[in-house]
Design a protein that fits this description.
Length: 415
């Protein structure tokens, strides 16, 4: 079995390429040596400072005994020091920060938290779309629709991030999983921060309590998932949503954000399957409103948040070429060069930026004899045509700039 997998994934691996290799050593000295050579950029400083400040806030705000918190942070530090684990945990730091903040949110004192809004989201829904779409979709329910809505919302949502990560690791470029962890973690982290700063009641609250004022002592509700608990004879969703860490976290919808982020990364790596991923997002959107967990405006906000973070991640972390079969098929990985793509940062050597006075402005007409040609005001001291000079220059620069940018040395993967 191992030999078959090795042939399947490594048969077209370039012999000279090590870009997809994983660190398998346990010696902490390797990590310390890398840290000594590491020269952080401004973005790196902002990245680690922000996540570190959130971790420090969680360390102080979480009511767990100090001994347990210190032991946990020491264990986490150990995972960052050991090379075989640090290659994953350094990249997963945004996800770990999001989880730490999320599970600490329920312990924030109510006296220091903003007032819960009950009327804003249904009012915005009515203003923008003319009616409450969640109420309309949840009016008529049956067992078939309950199961159809439960599959993406109650099952796929919790398992999809791991499945997406595994597929990207195996069939995406070597660094795409790093970008996915960055984008997925930051999207959820910003979402939880917004939910805590702008607590809003979901549709199930309006069904149970109308427009009465809400308070932080209330328990949550599974909404339409209570019917799934009853159908399966379990108490999983009722118990989980009743004691959620962020009960009034309707806006933005992180269910929508996660599904959109997964669809964006899959569409980037497997563009021919994009309609399937778009269909999955629409399926989850419908299920969240049918189960009375989100308004439509929440779903749009979650997807917009994901799209913004994905676009930033795309141009700062993701590889350009995603066409090869697996991570081991790549000879090298090239990322986007923002300086070259920035139109405000013109390259002085670019042929389009050379002043006209420096160009040779002669024209050649192949059908005419050079000696009998009527002189032109564009004639210069040489007989090289302007068109050939400029085109040759631009072509040479193009080849020089992009030679080897996309190592398509191996077979393309099935998309």
């Amino acid at each position: 079995m191992a030999d078959a997998l090795r042939r399947f994934f490594l048969s077209d691996k370039p012999s000279y390429s090590h870009v997809a290799d994983l660190e398998t050593r346990f010696n902490p000295k390797i990590t310390f040596a890398k840290l000594q050579r590491y020269k952080p950029t401004v973005k790196d400083v902002c990245h680690y400072s922000f996540l570190g400040s959130v971790f420090l806030f969680v360390f102080v705000a979480n009511p767990a005994p100090w001994t347990y918190k210190i032991l946990f942070y020491c264990f986490l530090a150990l995972l960052f020091i050991i090379p075989v684990t640090s290659q994953f945990f350094f990249n997963a730091l945004p996800i770990l920060t999001w989880l730490a903040l999320y599970f600490t949110s329920s312990y924030f004192p109510a006296s220091h938290r903003p007032k819960i809004t009950v009327k804003v989201l249904p009012a915005v829904e009515t203003i923008l779309y003319g009616d409450n779409l969640s109420d309309i979709l949840a009016t008529s329910t049956n067992t078939f629709l309950d199961i159809l809505a439960w599959i993406p919302y109650g099952l796929f949502h919790f398992g999809a991030p791991f499945v997406v990560a595994a597929i990207l690791f195996l069939f995406g470029p070597p660094t795409v999983l790093r970008g996915y962890a960055f984008a997925f973690g930051y999207m959820n982290l910003f979402g939880v921060i917004i939910q805590n700063a702008f607590p809003a009641a979901p549709p199930w609250y309006k069904i149970l309590y109308g427009l009465e004022s809400a308070h932080y002592g209330m328990h949550g509700s599974p909404g339409g998932l209570a019917r799934i608990d009853h159908l399966l004879g379990i108490n999983l969703y009722t118990s989980g949503f009743s004691n959620s860490s962020v009960i009034f976290g309707a806006f933005p919808s992180l269910h929508s954000g996660c599904a959109t982020m997964e669809a964006l990364f899959f569409s980037y790596c497997f563009p021919k399957l994009r309609p399937i991923f778009i269909g999955y997002v629409c399926w989850l959107w419908w299920s969240t409103m049918y189960l009375t967990h989100h308004y439509f405006v929440d779903l749009v906000a979650g997807s917009v948040l994901s799209y913004i973070i994905f676009q930033y991640t795309k141009y700062t972390h993701l590889p350009v070429d995603t066409s090869l079969f697996s991570r081991w098929s790549y000879a090298s990985v090239e990322t986007y060069d923002m300086d070259k793509m920035n139109p405000l940062r013109a390259d002085a050597n670019d042929v389009e930026n050379v002043p006209l006075s420096n160009l040779e402005l002669d024209f050649e007409l192949n059908s005419m004899d050079e000696a009998s040609r009527t002189p032109s005001i564009f004639d210069g001291p040489t007989s090289t045509s302007r068109s050939s000079a400029t085109s040759n220059t631009s072509l040479a620069e193009f080849q020089h700039d992009y030679a080897g940018a996309s190592p398509r040395l191996n077979k393309p993967r099935f998309e």
